């Protein structure tokens, strides 16, 4: 029900135009900030997460242990009397979440009277004075017995004991939702991570003269974390590789991409090539051959070429002949995009006066939203520079701006197909829908896991061209 | 368990889909990578013209495709020569691949009824390799069994004469050349599609949401409630 109403409120034509307008706004903001490096990091909200760098001195356990002045060592100076006088200290920050692995190490300098050292993870609600693993929502690997405690009251046999001279590591594998522990560079084992939400790297000492130092990555780790990560990724990779997809499905996606965008010449050659492979690729509905995407293929190709060669006047006249309904409303977004492009072409040709006159004549009628205004400002800024292509709005003179306008017009033409049931589908090719779906699946999975893990990055797939 | 699953409506999901930031160039790169890896040279050239997607050394595809086609059409000797022209290390460092090419050559000789030549070739070129490696020996014996049957198209090892045997060998050479050029053997697009299935399967455990299951339409299917 709600879908039907929302569709009638916004005509499909406008929703398509607005979509491309948004895309442009996005390029404008990001490229204006970083003209050289491109928009890569801006595409993903990729702020660097804060990480543990030292032991927390404010919150440390009521005087039972002493954190060294470097905030990276911990000593238990007293004789322990009670199970509630553990010298436990958390890191100054919780472990970062948006990655595959987090890891830190401790070195046992002195095992003291009883060697009751533990390493683990605890939440911010953890009761200091107790060993990690003794309380709910915590997990600890204990040196004295090699047991793992997971807040269940009783420990379980896990690995070897550790004592003076040993380096012990604690890590989180977000992809597998596991804690893992190492001793002297060797993996001891891993365990399902029941604790959700942020956890703090935690160290505990509990008998006289016990002393440990902590490495939050400021020094090289004894454990080969890089190799472990590669191994974990490879494991995941094998699982993905073993998934089967229909043999020619990717061919179908490519074909449909070419159809969608009106890359007619490439499409023709692909069809010929598909026939001459051994065995020939069947061009059947299951391989993405849809009549809808063949709609107006050569018209779309012609118009795309006009836009890409900067012939905007001809684009207008051709559209007027073939699809008058598209430019009927002179204040539509699609007209706005085309007028901007015309303005840009005039600047490119150095016809600045003509550009000014054109802009004054055409842009006035679009003063209906701030997005229009901002983009007009971007266009106008071209006039201010001696070398506009090197300015902060230089992106306007690039091929991708033409491509954006051409894509918008292409999508609008697709939506004029009377057989199209849902015109909003014309915005995206199959390929684009797949990428969007993958991205959202990852984001949703992260959010359901308490914002843990890695986001999907197309750039990672694109860049992995060299075999390491 | 089922009750704890989060339900995400189509409307919410589409809103999230819309907020994904994408770049056209990246999609063009994926398509270009597909065309290059699959060896569609002319198509890749045209795509470069139509989209301005960055130039890739297309000459290397032409050579690779020539080798692949040679094997597919049974000209194995020619294919071996071409591979060595491209990079002699490919066969030097891949004894199994070299054996399979030689085996294919033997199969082609038998197919063409050149029995004398085939026998000589088997004894001189293949037998010594079989002695080196036990796996090779078994495959060699299977291949030599073709000599024993009058009607080779109807014998227990007739699968060796099948076109699929040629295709298998051809794709093995293709992959080896790609690896030697530090290209990945497989195009990235199928990998992306597999990631989608994988990600959807994982998310299924936690939520109910609109999925893509049909590659031909890639439209969203309503979440099952």
Automatic annotation (TrEMBL), chain A:
Residues 38-62 are annotated as: Disordered. InterPro entries: B30.2/SPRY, CRA_dom, CTLH/CRA, CTLH_C, Gid1/RanBPM/SPLA_SPRY, LisH, SPRY_dom, Ubq-SigPath_Reg. It comes from the Eukaryota. Residues 296-354 form the CTLH domain. This is Ran-binding protein 10. PROSITE patterns: B302_SPRY (PS50188), CTLH (PS50897), LISH (PS50896). It comes from Salvia splendens. Residues 42-51 have a biased composition (Acidic residues). Residues 33-221 form the B30.2/SPRY domain. Pfam families: CTLH (PF10607), SPRY (PF00622).
Automatic annotation (TrEMBL), chain B:
It holds the Pfam family CTLH. InterPro entries: CRA_dom (IPR013144), CTLH/CRA (IPR024964), CTLH_C (IPR006595), LisH (IPR006594), Ubq-SigPath_Reg (IPR050618). Residues 60-117 form the CTLH domain. This is CTLH domain-containing protein. It comes from Salvia splendens (Scarlet sage).
